[in-house]
Specification:
Distance between the termini: 48 Å
CATH superfamily of the largest domain: Bira Bifunctional Protein, Domain 2
Radius of gyration: 22 Å
Order of helices and strands: HHHEEHEHEEHEEEEHHHHEEEEE
Strand content: 25-35%
CATH class of the largest domain: Alpha Beta
Bound molecules: biotinyl-5-AMP
Number of domains: 3
Structural class: alpha+beta
CATH topology of the largest domain: BirA Bifunctional Protein, domain 2
CATH architecture of the largest domain: 2-Layer Sandwich
Largest sheet: 7 strands, mixed
Number of strands: 14
C-alpha cells in the first residue's frame, strides 16, 4: 500500500472512531503529520469512494455514512471471525480471485487470507468453464490449510455450500436449496457457485483455495440470455437489494463456524446440516461427468462427499464429481 493510501486509511479510521462528532482538519493534520490541504485531498478521495462526509469550516469533518462496499477497512471494522479475513485484499477488477489466491498461497499467505474483487473478467467455474461475475455480486477466494487428507478435501465444498445456504436463509425470506455437489438454488435457479482448487501431496494438503461467487445485487437483465434461464440473483428473487457488507460478514462467520465444526466434530455433522437444504437426495437424478451419464435415485452422500445413486437394477453407483440434473419440474 502506498504512503498516500495508508494515510487515507488512517483518516478513515479516525473518522469512523469519531462518527458521532466532528474532528477538525487541524487535529487530523497534527495526528498524521501532514498539511491540512493533504487532509482535504484524502477527504475528497474518500467522498469519491462513496463516503458521505460532512464538513464545516468551524467544526471540521464528520463521517455521516459509509458506502456498502467490501473494502478491507469496512470489513475489518466489524469482522467477528478469528481465522477467516485475517488479511483482506481487495481489487476493483481482476481476471479471477482464485488465480490470485493460488499465487498468494504459493508465496506462503496465511490461512484465512481473502482476495476479493468488485468484478471478475475471467471468472472460473469448474473444469475450465466460464463464470459470469459482474459488479454487484460477491466474488472472493479464501486460502485455507485444512487438517484433512487430500482424498476428503471436497468436504470443504459442503462447508461452503451450507454456510451460503444458512446466510441466505438468515438474512432473507428466500428458501435456499442445495443441489449436489456445490450449487445453491433459489426457485430452481443457481445463485451461488463454488470452485475449490488445491495443491497437495499424497498425504497432505499444502493449501486449498476456496472460491465463492454470489449473485447478490445484480438485475437478471444484466445476465447473458443463455444464463437467464438457469441463473438468478438474490436481488431478483427478493425484489430488492441486500446490504452487501452485512451479507459478507455473516457468511464469513458461518463459514468459520462450519469450518471449525468440520475439523472438530467431523463431516457427519456438516452433512446433517446440508440435508436441511438438500434437494438431491431422495430424488431421481441424471448425473453426467467425464465418465458418462447415469440416471437413478440419489440415495446418500458418502464420507468423501460422493453422491450415491441407486440404478434401476438396484446397484449403487458412487459419483465423485459431475453435474446433477434433478428429474423434477425444475429441469
Ligand atoms: C461453479 O462452476 O459454479 C464455480 C463458480 C466459482 C466462482 C467463484 S467467484 C470467485 C472465485 N474466482 C473464480 O474465478 N471463480 C470463483 P460450475 O459448477 O462449473 O458452473 C459453471 C456454470 O454455471 C457455467 O457453465 C454457466 O452455465 C453457469 N454460470 C456462469 N456464471 C454464472 C453465474 N454468475 N450464476 C449462475 N450460474 C452461472
Amino acid at each position: 500500500m502506498s504512503r498516500t493510501s495508508k494515510r487515507k486509511q488512517q483518516v478513515l479510521k479516525i473518522l469512523h472512531r469519531n462518527q458521532e462528532q466532528y474532528i477538525s482538519g487541524q487535529e487530523l493534520s497534527d495526528k498524521l503529520g501532514v498539511s491540512r490541504t493533504a487532509i482535504w485531498k484524502y477527504i475528497q478521495s474518500l467522498r469519491e469512494q462513496g463516503y458521505v462526509i460532512d464538513s464545516s469550516s468551524k467544526l471540521g469533518y464528520r463521517l455521516v455514512k459509509a458506502p456498502d462496499i467490501l473494502s478491507p477497512e469496512e470489513i475489518k471494522k466489524d469482522l467477528k471471525t478469528d481465522i477467516l479475513g485475517c488479511k483482506v485484499i481487495y481489487h476493483e477488477e481482476v481476471e479471477s480471485t482464485n488465480l490470485l489466491a493460488k499465487s498468494a498461497a504459493r508465496q506462503g499467505a496465511d490461512e484465512g487470507t481473502i482476495i476479493l474483487a468488485k468484478e471478475q473478467v475471467g471468472g472460473k467455474g469448474r473444469l475450465g468453464r466460464e463464470y459470469f461475475c459482474p459488479a454487484g455480486g460477491i466474488w472472493f477466494s479464501i486460502i485455507l490449510h485444512p487438517d484433512l487428507k487430500p482424498t476428503v478435501a471436497s468436504r470443504i465444498n459442503f462447508v461452503a455450500v451450507v454456510a451460503l445456504a444458512k446466510t441466505i436463509d438468515k438474512l432473507t425470506d428466500l428458501t435456499p436449496e442445495i443441489k449436489w455437489p456445490n450449487d445453491v438454488l433459489i426457485n430452481g435457479k443457481k445463485v451461488t457457485g463454488i470452485l475449490t482448487e488445491m495443491s497437495a501431496e499424497i498425504e497432505q494438503i499444502n493449501y486449498l483455495v476456496l472460491g465463492i461467487g454470489i449473485n447478490l445485487n445484480i438485475g437478471l437483465d444484466k445476465f447473458p440470455s443463455e444464463l437467464q434461464k438457469k441463473a438468478t440473483s438474490i436481488q431478483e428473487e427478493l425484489g430488492q437489494k441486500v446490504p452487501k457488507l452485512q451479507f459478507f460478514l455473516t457468511l464469513l462467520e458461518n463459514l468459520e463456524e462450519k469450518y471449525t465444526k468440520l475439523q472438530i466434530e467431523g463431516f457427519a455433522e456438516i452433512v446433517e446440516e446440508w440435508e436441511d437444504y438438500n434437494i438431491t437426495i431422495g430424488n431421481e437424478v441424471t448425473v453426467s461427468n467425464g465418465e458418462g451419464t447415469l440416471s437413478g435415485q440419489a440415495v446418500d452422500i458418502n464420507d468423501e462427499g460422493c453422491l450415491l445413486v441407486e440404478l434401476s437394477d438396484g446397484t449403487i453407483k458412487k459419483v465423485v464429481a459431475g453435474e446433477a440434473t434433478l428429474n423434477t419440474e425444475y429441469n
